[in-house]
Design goal:
Number of helices of chain A: 13
Number of strands of chain B: 0
Helix content of chain B: 55-70%
Strand content of chain A: 15-25%
Mean pLDDT of chain B: 76
Shape of chain A: globular
Order of helices and strands of chain A: HHEEEEEEEEEEEHHHHHHHHHHH
Oligomer: heterodimer
Largest interface: A-B, 68 and 82 residues
Largest sheet of chain B: none
Distance between the termini of chain B: 38 Å
Structural class of chain A: alpha+beta
Low-confidence stretches of chain B: 1-24, 26-43
Shape of chain B: globular
Number of helices of chain B: 9
Chain lengths: ~375, ~210
């Protein structure tokens, strides 16, 4: 066993939530509360369904479960309503009694809803400055001024467009659908290709039985380098990225591209992405992260500790406090030490200990700063 | 709670193993399918009495929390996860005759819930809806600064590997489950588990070696 393996084993051994009797009591109280609320909601749902049935309309309810949304950004929606109407006039309507929809974000720039199960329809008011997305599992439907329905059956998502256009994105590709077009996503071929050997040899019934209303999505088979990167398939992502490197502008894209280059074994190729991000992004928060990543690449992969120290200094000044600034200062000490600049290393180490007297990297900082 | 007290092996009745073999990895169900399978498990004459939900929570919440925390690396998400797992258990616990099967069932549901949350987290990051995860407090406060820093770094590295592989590696290296147990809870073959664990182990070690120069 190597030293790194021993270190990993030691480090993970200490990962424990330290759940105690108090946590159990609190958790049990929360559980009782949630069970009570669920029972109440079910009774209310039964009552509403009865009323709606009498009126000849069985609408059911939309359960707005927006634990991930900020309360101020979520629209004021009655949980017993069949339709969510947003301030710009866009609407999401549940088409099945047990459909479950969550509003993740509703603001002037973005409206994002999530379909946990069932079928919904969306009427989207055209507004180029606002993004309208429906997330269903690992499929994202982005409206381009349109009306469409989304149906989720486990991991399969059916999208049907009444008018306008939508862009459907899944982990390994995307496709635009126009008026009258419909399809299931991810495409069935895509699912089969990704299927792993299973213990029972059972076949996912949703994949086998899902109808495919549209034509073969051959045009959508081009995987996105970003999706591949998000899946951790960095070598494949790097191969696709090489043709697109000049087109990248978005800070997140540049940062991700640098990660792809570094993790696919091409650390030198990460440098231009990071430098461009730092240079072109002004005060964007990702610029600090880029400077930090640049320092790491220069120090650990390219053997340029002096340049790395400057990059860590840049990261620290851009981070303006916080854990990134602390990490950057600690790394700067290490980089100066590696560069043979003992005086600078000691000065930075003293600065670290003054700013972060209980810092997580104090021990390493003292060692590299020659303060032990 | 003593550290890693949950590392005891789970005893699985052969019939239970057969039943659970039908649980495939892609079935991120709401617990219904796995619950139905557990419900079919026969209670042996020497089995203890079935547990109520509260008894089950008191007995197994630490186990569920430990698995959830180790997979997610987040204390906040762990609390939500424990709640969601036992809400699902509420629907099925009355049908589980043999309480010894309950722990295994809860483990499987926990793994699936955690996996779904990791996928959602990744999707949210892709949609720019969340910042990078903060794993600064993933290690025990009693760990040394170097161990805490290393644990944080390991979870950052895990953010870059596929979710299924991350779950398998975490269950093996952090949770300490055996490979067959992981295959059972993840609903995939033993060979797949071995491959995933080895691949992530390689990535983690390489990344850490890079860091250490």
């Amino acid at each position: 066993m190597t030293k790194v393996e021993r270190d990993v084993e030691t480090a993970v051994r200490g990962i424990d939530p330290a759940w105690d009797a108090k946590d159990t009591e609190i958790g049990l109280a929360m559980l009782r509360g949630r069970l009570r609320r669920r029972a109440t909601a079910r009774r209310a749902g039964v009552g509403l369904a009865a009323v709606a049935a009498c009126a000849g309309l069985v609408w059911g309810t939309i359960g707005v479960r927006s634990s991930t949304a900020t309360s101020e950004s979520a629209p004021a929606v009655a949980t017993a309503s069949a339709t969510v109407r947003f301030s710009d006039g866009s609407m999401v309507t549940r088409l099945e009694p047990d459909a479950q929809v969550s509003v993740i974000e509703a603001g002037p720039e973005r409206i994002i809803t999530s379909v946990e199960r069932g079928q919904i329809s969306a009427e989207v008011t055209p507004r180029p400055s606002r993004v309208f997305r429906v997330v269903a599992g690992q499929v994202v439907v982005e409206a381009l001024g349109t009306a469409f329905t989304v149906e989720r059956l486990d991991e399969r998502v059916g999208v049907s467009v009444r008018h306008g256009r939508v862009r459907v994105t899944w982990l390994t590709g995307f496709r635009e659908l126009g008026a009258g077009e419909a399809n299931w996503f991810p495409p069935i071929e895509d699912n089969r290709a990704r299927e792993e050997p299973r213990t029972s040899g059972a076949v996912d019934p949703a994949v086998e039985s899902s109808p495919v209303p549209g034509s073969s999505p051959s045009s959508s088979r081009t995987p996105s380098w970003k999706m591949l990167a998000l899946e951790g398939r960095n070598r494949e992502a790097y191969a696709l990225l090489r043709d697109q490197r000049k087109n990248l502008r978005d800070p997140d894209e540049l940062l991700l591209a640098a990660d792809v280059a570094r993790l696919s074994g091409h650390p030198a190729d990460a440098v231009p992405y990071l430098e461009r991000l730092i240079k072109e992004s002004g005060n964007h928060p990702k610029a600090a992260m880029a400077a930090f990543a640049l320092g790491r690449v220069l120090m650990t992969s390219l053997g340029q500790p002096e340049k790395a120290a400057l990059a860590f200094g840049e990261a620290r000044s851009r981070a303006q406090g916080g854990s990134l600034a602390e990490d950057a200062l600690a790394r700067e000490v290490e980089a100066w030490a590696q560069a043979g600049a003992a005086t600078r290393a000691r000065e930075r180490a003293q600065e670290y200990l003054r700013l972060y007297p209980r810092g997580q990297r104090s021990r390493a900082v003292k060692t590299f700063g020659g303060l032990e | 709670m003593p550290a890693r007290s949950h590392l005891q092996l789970i005893n699985i009745h052969p019939r239970e193993a057969d039943d659970r073999a039908g649980l495939a990895e892609g079935d991120d169900d709401d617990g219904a399918a796995s619950g139905a399978r557990v419900a079919r498990m026969r209670r042996s004459p020497d089995s203890p009495s079935p547990l109520s939900l509260e008894e089950a929570f008191k007995q197994y919440a630490p186990h569920v929390a430990a698995i959830g925390f180790r997979i997610l690396g987040s204390r906040d998400q762990m609390q939500d996860l424990v709640q969601d797992v036992f809400l699902k258990a509420h629907d099925w616990i009355a049908r589980i005759d043999d309480p010894r099967a309950l722990k295994s069932w809860l483990t499987t549901v926990t793994v699936r819930e955690a996996r779904a949350r990791l996928r959602l987290r990744r999707m949210r990051a892709f949609l720019h809806l969340s910042d990078h995860n903060n794993y600064a407090s993933v290690a025990s406060p009693t760990a040394s600064p170097a161990e805490r820093a290393l644990a944080t770094e390991i979870y950052r590295i895990l953010d870059g590997v596929p979710v299924n592989a991350r779950v398998a590696w975490t269950l093996r290296q952090v949770e300490g489950l055996t490979l067959p147990e992981i295959a059972q809870h993840c609903g995939c073959s033993l060979a797949t588990v071995k491959r995933r664990v080895a691949e992530v182990h390689r990535i983690v070690l390489e990344a850490l070696r890079d860091d250490q120069g």
